[in-house]
Amino acid sequence: MYQHCRESNILSKHQYGYRLKTSTEKTAFNLLNEIYDALNKRIIVGGLFCNLKKALYCVDHGILLSKFKFYGTRGKLLGLIKTYLEDRYKKVQINVKN
Length: 98
Known about the structure:
Elements: H1 2-7, H2 24-40, H3 61-70, H4 75-85
């Protein structure tokens, strides 16, 4: 999948996750560099940060699958992704001992 995304030029140059030779440190460095450049030019800087830790639970899986198809994902890989997304649920079990 990574190879397909790379060869099809799907990922933005600003996409650091799941890519070779990138890291959260590089992301943080680039963000801070942009902020410092703006401040040096006396430009007002603001930020909005979102926690996307549980993003998979918030995305409509039908839309996500259609995006995969749009970007050329087909066959067994698409089937694998579809079965991964189907019938997902969370279960919390607490064993209380008296």
